[in-house]
């Protein structure tokens, strides 16, 4: 029996070109928007917010704190370890998996983009998008206002300086700063 074609959601999660206007994906974004609205509007208390995060995210470890406001596309593609801290106003565009390891600390206004777009304008006109996973190791410190681009991996114990734009992988234990972020000597 021949296999059925992939859904737009399956294409999205696997990093293939997909149509973001697919009704299932639109419904998923509306669902996450409703959960985010509740999360961002509720007075902050770690116990109740952890329950809400478990409804929104793919997985979240114990003693993790994400301060509102917080923004995602879907939520279910985000996997956060234990004792992780995200400060105010972080944006995670999770069309592909975003993984954050245990004890990672992320400053205010950090943006993590798994979402990408084709460079060919005709493909963009066809409403096709893609994504590449972002992986952040354990015990990483990401300074406020940093931006992580699609497909990057940040190794364990690394530091990303405030305001840095990470365009390529960061080795474990390295400190990177600047635009584009480069290893600090």
UniProtKB/TrEMBL annotation:
Which protein family is it in?
Belongs to the transferase hexapeptide repeat family.
Q: Name one GO cellular component term.
A: cytosol
Higher taxonomy? Bacteria, Pseudomonadati, Acidobacteriota, Terriglobia, Terriglobales
Instruction: Using the record, list the residue span of the signal peptide; answer none if the entry has no such feature.
Output: none
Q: Which UniProt keywords apply?
A: Acyltransferase, Repeat, Transferase
Organism of origin is Edaphobacter modestus
User: Recorded GO terms, molecular function?
Assistant: acetyltransferase activity; O-acyltransferase activity
Q: What does this protein do?
A: Acetyltransferase implicated in the O-acetylation of Nod factors.
Domain (Maltose/galactoside acetyltransferase): give its ranges: 9-62
The name under which this protein is listed is Nodulation protein L
| Record PROSITE patterns | HEXAPEP_TRANSFERASES
Q: State the superkingdom.
A: Bacteria
Looking up InterPro entries in the UniProt record yields:
Hexapep (IPR001451), Hexapep_transf_CS (IPR018357), Hexapeptide_acetyltransf (IPR051159), Mac_dom (IPR024688), Trimer_LpxA-like_sf (IPR011004)
Regions crossing the membrane: none
């Amino acid at each position: 029996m021949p296999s059925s074609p992939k859904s737009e959601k399956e294409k999205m999660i696997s990093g293939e070109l997909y149509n973001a206007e697919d009704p299932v994906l639109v419904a998923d974004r509306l669902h996450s928007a409703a959960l985010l609205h509740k999360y961002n509007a509720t007075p902050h208390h770690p116990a109740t917010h952890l329950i809400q995060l478990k409804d929104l995210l793919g997985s979240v470890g114990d003693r993790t704190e994400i301060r509102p406001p917080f923004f995602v596309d879907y939520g279910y593609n985000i996997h956060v370890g234990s004792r992780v801290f995200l400060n105010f106003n972080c944006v995670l565009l999770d069309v592909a998996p975003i993984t954050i390891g245990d004890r990672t600390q992320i400053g205010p206004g950090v943006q993590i983009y798994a979402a990408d777009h084709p460079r060919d304008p005709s493909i963009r006109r066809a409403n096709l998008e893609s994504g590449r996973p972002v992986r952040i190791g354990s015990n990483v410190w990401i300074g406020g206002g940093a931006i992580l681009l699609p497909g990057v991996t940040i190794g364990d114990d690394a530091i990303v300086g405030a305001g840095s734009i990470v365009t390529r992988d960061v080795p474990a234990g390295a400190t990177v700063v600047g635009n584009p972020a480069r290893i600090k000597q």
